[in-house]
Design goal:
The protein is α/β, with parallel strands linked by helices and 302 residues long. It has a single domain, classed as 4-Layer Sandwich (Purple Acid Phosphatase, chain A, domain 2). Helix content is 26%, strand content 23%. It has 8 helices and 15 strands. It has a 6-stranded mixed sheet with strand order 4-5-7-9-11-10, covered by helices on one side. The longest helix has 18 residues. The protein is globular, with a radius of gyration of 20 Å. The two termini are 32 Å apart. Bound molecules: fe (ii) ion (2 copies). One fe (ii) ion (FE2) binds next to loops.
């Protein structure tokens, strides 16, 4: 089919899910059914089928680091990864516990790594490098990249990847207007900027804030996904921190040659207002570009 648009199809589609905050036994979190929210996320993503390449979960998978919470997260996302053929990338958040995270999500043997060893990982998706960077500090909710983590990152980035690098981290290097989040933000950001400058990092992915937001750090785009558990309300009075039972979302990253987009997808279910099906699309695609333009773009006479 001859294309009309400026951009070719995306080379890579990444589902960016964050802050699921599951509890043992599937217990609700402040009245919110976090397991149902993750199940809904998986159901919506499964519609993408084989076009989905990666699922990145940027931390706070469990609210209290319980083994059963990790088992429930896998019960929802492992089948999605199998059904779509997508690679699943887990990132540590401040609500996670390293030992249970390693055992429950990464299938690492218990007692293998000391607790102060961060859970950094590197995934290769057809030449696209995705670094899961552990920004957590055991026993605390703020984030930090210490000299050891920064050295590790510098060593990984020393060699460029064929299709560049995405760094997925829970505490993203981005400014927030939320009150008190200065206490819980990422420390070591100036040093991080030094490490990533001039390397092949295309994008930072983050979570932790519980609302979708976008910015830039050291000249590199930052995309923070909203939470599936609950949403921080940025329309609350400036000196109040309010989490609401609504506005849940995940993000979809579409990578193109030399471009990308980060899109927020609201968590349903919703009633359908308008829809064009497979048959209509096939009919349009069979047309010559000029005919397609007339059929789909031309306004009816008023
Ligand atoms: Fe969170
Ligand atoms: Fe967090």
């Amino acid at each position: 089919m001859e294309r009309l648009g400026r951009y070719p199809a995306a080379t890579t589609v990444i589902a960016h899910v964050s802050d699921t905050h599951l509890l043992s036994g599937g217990a609700p979190l402040g009245g919110a059914d976090t397991v149902a929210a993750l199940a809904q996320t998986a159901a919506q993503l499964e519609r993408l089928g084989a076009s989905l390449d990666v699922i990145v979960v940027t931390g706070d998978v469990a609210d209290l680091g319980e083994a059963d919470a990790y088992a429930r997260a896998r019960a929802e996302l492992d089948p999605l990864a199998r059904a779509t053929g997508a690679e699943l990338v887990w990132v540590m958040g401040n609500h996670d516990e390293r030992a249970a995270f390693r055992l429950g999500l990464l299938d690492e043997a218990p007692g293998g790594a000391p607790l102060d060893d961060p859970v950094h990982r590197v995934a290769d998706v057809d030449g696209l490098r995705i670094i899961a960077l552990d920004t957590t500090v055991p026993g605390y909710h703020h984030g930090e990249l210490d000299a050891r983590s920064l050295d590790w990152l510098a060593r990984v980035l020393a060699e460029p990847a064929p299709r560049g690098t995405i760094i997925a981290m829970h505490h993203a290097p981005i400014a927030t207007p939320l009150a008190l989040m200065d206490v819980l933000e990422l420390r070591g950001q100036d040093e991080l900027a030094e490490v990533v400058r001039g390397r092949d990092v295309r994008l930072f992915l983050g979570g932790h804030l519980h609302y979708a937001t976008h910015g830039a750090f050291a000249g590199i785009p930052v995309s923070v996904a909203g939470a599936t558990a609950y949403t921080m309300d940025l329309s609350a009075p400036p000196r109040e921190l309010v989490g609401i039972d609504g506005g849940r979302s995940f993000s979809l990253l579409h990578l193109f040659d030399g471009a990308f987009s980060a899109s927020v997808v609201p968590l349903g279910p919703f009633d359908v207002v308008t829809s064009f099906g497979e048959g209509y699309l096939a009919e349009l695609e069979a047309m010559a570009p000029a005919e397609r333009l007339e059929r789909f773009s031309r306004k009816p006479p008023t």
